[in-house]
Amino acid sequence: MTEYYEDDEDWISKSEVKRQMHALQTLGESLTNLNAQQLKTIPASDAMLEAVGEYHRLKHREAKRRMLQRIGKLMREEDADAIQNAVDLLTPGTDAHLRVEKQLESWRARLIEHGDHAINQLLNEYPNAERQTLRQLVRNAQRAAQKTEANPQTTSEAKKLFKWLRENLR
Fold this sequence. Notes:
By secondary structure, this protein is mainly alpha-helical. It has helices at residues 14-31, 36-40, 46-57, 61-75, 80-90, 95-114, 116-125, 131-147, 156-168. It folds into 2 domains: 13-90, Diphtheria Toxin Repressor, domain 2, CATH 1.10.60; 95-168, PSPTO4464-like domains (Diphtheria Toxin Repressor, domain 2). It is 71% helix and 0% strand. The chain is elongated, with a radius of gyration of 23 Å.
């Protein structure tokens, strides 16, 4: 006769634990592929960010492999879901990244089309955005759109506006 314990529902196999640890190590490895500016947007501890910086300073393959294992171990202490979401936002092709890009494209179109009214709406949502710079970029994009008969989103001024939105609204 087999006895069942209440803790059986919480039991995780050794293989599952290994899969989880490997997933954390893979997530940590994805942090090593980000540049310094992107790393600033990741909600990770100072120890994690230092380990990623140390990884970039290492030259030898074996040392890098050991550092990746250390990063994986540090990942156990981190909020992996928050880090994964932040990495997804920075990784082209992911659903989260595509959603953000479409939202930025929508803002750019509204700003070019509606001017000051759209600027005020954007500043209500993102109060830390710099009004004067935004206004100048929108005006330049509107002038360029008036000069060209092509799609106003393809002018160099519209691209500058989009770049500013990408850098300042995240």
